[in-house]
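tool_call: predict_structure(chain=1)
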Amino acid sequence: MQTIVKSTMICVLIAVLAGWGGAASIENHDQPMQTPISDMTLRAGSQQPAGPVIYLYPMRQLLLDTFERATLAPWTSSGTTSWGMRDTTDTYGPQAPAVSGYRYAGHPSTDLPEYPSSGANPGLICYLTSPTIDLSGIAELYLSFNYWGDFEGVATNFDGGIIEISANNGATWVQVDSQATGHLDPTYDAQLAGTGTLGTAWAYCYDTDPDWVNVSSQDLIALGYVSTGDLIRVRYTFASDALSGGQGWFIDDVRIAETPPQDLQPPVITHTPLPDTVDTLNNYTVSADIIDEGTGVNPDSVYLHYEIENGPIVDIDMVNTGGDTYEADIPSQNWHTDIFYSIHAADIAGNWANTALYNFEVTNARLITYDDGQPYWIPGDLPPGNGLYVQFSFSDVGIDSGLVHKVIYYFDGPGPFDLEIYRGTGGNPGPLLGALPNLTSPGYEWVSVDCDTLNIRTTGDVVAGFICGASGGDTTRVLMDPTQEYPNRMWGWIVGAWQQTPYAGGDYMIRMKVIPIEPPGIEDRPTDQAFTLTQISPNPMRERATIEFQLFNSQKVKLNIYDVSGKLIRVLLDDVKEKGTHSLYWNGCDTRGNNVACGVYFVKLETDDCVMTKKLLLIK
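tool_result:
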C-alpha cells in the first residue's frame, strides 16, 4: 500500500521531517553562502587527521539544516533504535514547508503508525547527533529548531525527548534546561514518569498535533553549557518505556548560530472559503485575518491570487481594513463560472505563507460532500481498470431531483481516468447513467469535471467515481480523509466486481454538484415573490454552514432555525435588508450558545408576504 508520504529512507523509530530548502548549509554572518556540509574541509591551518573526518566549522558561521534530502548525514543516529529521514514534499504540497503546511505529519497505517515497543522497561532510547562544530572565535551561541510530537497519549509523561549538548566533541553530555527554568523557550512540558531510560527528566512529552512548535534557546555560552573554542555537538534524545506510542518525535529546521534566531515562522492566514453563489451583480469580497507573532506582517506583501476559469492569472493587493483583517474583491461573473483563488502574505523577516487554492462557482448548484476536506492518505494499489466511487443522495442537500452538474476529485497525482456515473440502489450500483472517457488528472489537487453534457436528470441516489487508466508504474487514485464516517457510501470496482468499502481508514475525496430541478408548478418564481433562499453550504454541515439568500427589493426579513418538532432553535436575522445577495452563517448552536444535537433542522426565511423553508442536516 502506498501513501502520500514519499519516504526516502525507512525509519525504525522516528523521522526527521523535511522543510523548506535543500541540504544542510553554513552561513557566513558577513557574506551569506550555501555550502553543503559534505563539501566542507577542515578550517585553515589544521591538519588532516587519520581515520574519519571531523567536520570543523569555520569561525563566525552557523549550522542551518532543513533536512530536505534523502540521507541523514552528516547527522548520525545511535541507540537501541534509529532515527531516519522522511521526505514530505508531497505530503505538504508542492514546495510547502513542513512547519506551515499539511496538518498531519504521518500516515495512520503504513507509515510507522507507532514507534516500536521494547517489551520491557526501561524501554527504547535513540540519539540524533549533529556533526562537530568549532566554537573558535564564537562569543555567543544560540540553538533553535521546530518539532512535532505524537507520543504515548495526548498529554502524558511516559515517553518524550530532550536536548543535550557536549562541550568536548561528544565525550560527555549535559541536558539543556534540565530544570525547565527557561533556557529553552518554550521549555519542556513535564517531568517524565520514570518508566523509561530518561527517568524523571524534564522533556517534551505532550502531543502537538496539529501544530509545529518553534523552540529557541538563550545564549548557551553565557549560561555555561559550552565555551568559546570548544568543539561541540548537539543531540536530540528520545526515550520510551516498555509500551509503544504514537508516531514519535519529528525535528525540522535546526539552526545553531552566534546570533539569536530570526523569526522562522511564517504568518498565519485564517480565511473562510467563499461558498458557491448565485450573485452575478456584485463583486466577491475575499477577507482574511493575517497574524505574525514574530516580526509582524509586511502589509505590502499581502495579495490575492485568482483566476477566472481558464482566463489570465490576476494578482491584486489586499487592503488592511482594520486590525488583522485584509480584503480584496474579485469582479462579479456570469452564471456557471468557476473562480479559483489563494491568499499570500509575508512577515517582515521574509517568511511567506500561502493558503490552499480555493474554488467557488457562480451557480445555484448544491455541493454534496461526505469527506471532511482534509487529505490524509490514499488507498492501496489500484490497477488499471479498477475504480473508486461514492454514492450521493440529493436529499442530503434538501432537493428531490437534480441535474448532475460536476464531479470533483482530489487525486494523488497525474494520470488518466474515466468518469462514470451509475444509478444508486439499495445494493450494488445500478445501470450506467453516463461516462466521460479519456480524462487526465493534472496532479496532486482538486479536479472538477463538468458533466452538463451528459444531461443526467434524476432523483434519489447516484454513484459517481472513476476508472483509472495506465500511468507508468502507478495509477491515478483519490485521497482519503483521516476518518471513515460513511462506509456505506464508499464503493470500489475491483477486479470486475463491486465491493463496498474496499479500503478502510477514511472517506474517498469525491464530491458532486447538482443543479436542483424543482417539481412542476414550483420551478418558476411567482411574480410577487420578493426573495429566494438560494443555498446552504455545506449541507450536511459539521461545524458551521453558510446560508445565502437573495432579495429582489428592500424589505424586512426573518431567518430562523427550527428542529423537526417545530421548536425555534436560533434567530439568525430579524431586520430590514437591502436588495441583493446576503449571507449568514449558523455555527450549530442554539440561542443560549449551546451546541445542538446532530439531526435534521429547517432553515426558514420569511417576510410579511412569503415563507421559504429548506432542510439542513447537522452531523459531527
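agent: The chain has four domains: 1-29+57-262, 273-362, 384-516, 531-618. Proceeding to next step.
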